[in-house]
């Protein structure tokens, strides 16, 4: 048992300085996804009639397993005082970055901590 503990401690001491083990930090809370190939053009969707108290979240492509997968649009419950920002792909010098959608309160177009925890499902 002592040999196993000593071996694990030695491996950890060797790997930690190399950055092989990473611990989650606040900066990693919303990781960016980068892909080398451009996403396909958005699909045409039939938007159902408006629903009172809901906002239409358009369909978009997400990267899963090294390929693009279409996620259909849907209605999401509206949040008074917030604007919904749809997910989008942006070209960053030949690499495509996926920016998750979400609720934006401060009007800067970016759902972030300044919006006072907008995606908390238990918030009234």
Rg measurement, Å: 20 Å
General form: flat
Q: Biggest β-sheet: count, sense, barrel?
A: 3 strands, antiparallel
Number of helical runs? Answer: 1
Helix content: 10-25%
Extract low-pLDDT stretches.
13-29
Instruction: Strand order, main sheet: write it out.
Output: 1-8-7
Q: Quick one: how many beta strands?
A: 9
Mean pLDDT: 75
The chain-level structural class is alpha+beta
Distance between the termini: 52 Å
Beta content comes to 25-35%
| Secondary-structure element series | HEEEEEEEEE
Question: Your description of this structure?
Answer:
This protein has one helix and nine strands; from the N terminus they run αβββββββββ. Helices cover 14% and strands 30% of the residues. The longest helix is centred in the N-terminal third of the chain and has 17 residues, at 2-18. The strands form four sheets. Strands 1-8-7 form a three-stranded antiparallel beta sheet, with no helix packed on it. The chain has a domain at 33-40 and 49-124. The radius of gyration is 20 Å and the shape is flat. With 124 residues, the chain is of the alpha+beta class. The termini are far apart. Residues 13-29 have low confidence and may be disordered. It has one helix at residues 2-18, and strands at residues 33-35, 54-57, 60-64, 67-71, 74-77, 83-85, 88-92, 95-99, 102-104.
